[in-house]
Design goal:
98 residues, alpha+beta, 4 strands
Length: 98
């Protein structure tokens, strides 16, 4: 569970810096991953290919695994009402809004 705790901490840090997470665009969940995070201050962060480090690039969707658990923890900490199963079953093109 250490990865999930780190994603929660990362969510808090990004929200502190950029305001609430307003929208999430799941362009593609994995292979390759492209998730766009849009914050209330206009900041856009693109989650892409895994960097090999414990960082935001660990977040994935559309499969059952560590990346989906990390993405779910991040979204939960950011105030999104999304279940783990919804993250696992997320389709490309999904947009989440608060």
């Amino acid at each position: 569970m250490a990865y999930e705790a780190q994603m929660r901490q990362l969510a808090r840090q990004l929200i502190s810096k950029h305001g609430d997470l307003a929208e999430v665009h799941c362009v593609s969940g994995h292979n390759p991953c492209q998730i766009e995070l849009l914050f209330s201050d206009g900041e856009k962060i693109i989650v892409g290919q895994h960097s090999g480090h414990v960082d935001i690039s660990m977040m994935k969707a559309g499969y059952h695994g560590t990346g989906s658990r990390c993405f779910h923890a991040f979204l939960d900490e950011a105030g999104f009402d999304v279940t783990f199963e919804q993250v696992v079953n997320m389709k490309n093109g999904t947009v989440l809004r608060r």
